[in-house]
Amino acid sequence: MGTITTHDGVEIFYKDWGPKNAQPIVFHHGWPLSADDWDAQMLYFVDKGYRVVAHDRRGHGRSTQVSDGHDMDHYAADVAAVVAHLDLRHAIHIGHSTGGGEATRYAARYGETRDLAKLVLIAAVPPTMVKTPANPGGTPIELFDGTRKELAANRAQFYLDFASGPFYGYNRPDAKASQGVIENWWRQAMMGGAKAQYDGIKAFSETDFTEDLKIIKVPTLVMHGDDDQIVPIADSAPLSAKLLKNSTLKIYERFPHGMCTTHADVVNAALLAFIKS
User: Fold this and answer.
1) Is 257 a catalytic residue?
2) Residue numbers of the domain that contains 258
């Protein structure tokens, strides 16, 4: 584990596990979490002999709680700084949710420079989430405004309710909730800065990744659960897959947004098959 300092003075925390000469896998976490959200994947792939790297996004986790730069351009540049610092080449980049947007922007802007091997988008926010005239199937801005209001009013309670309910699908009648998973989500979220997480809502909901997706050439796996209550599938994964030049779309019946945790065995096996293909 270590840190780097970006050109604008932000300290970014990262984990770097496994053989330094092995093929690297870089993980991009979702909002409002940290690199810890990838524990199930990082332990699995380091055991398979890969080098696994995950960072805490600026303002999140153990990275600096900076006031500015909470947008996809800065997020991608921060990833590029970590990748350059560790000299990661021919890496597979895997992004979940907001991290899927970050990974998409990184791949489009920096992928060729660092010889990007493959890309994976899991329950990811591209092409764009918010409802606009150009995206009539999107989520109304009022929902994101409500999220900002609840975060500002009582972040701790809002995050507890979020993890206990729609994120993992624990609000479904037949769901078996894990208190440990809920508390770990809350722990990660509360480690981060409220300002970064508040501003991050705009970053993940209003950024348009259409042009990014169009120029990405590497093989890309797009994974999504059809019971995702956070990033509705109808306006995300199938549209991204169509825009990508070389994509494989996998839709999982009844999987929730937090599928990397609730169905880690299925997700890990699918990731390994794609990486080896």
Assistant:
1) yes
2) 2-276
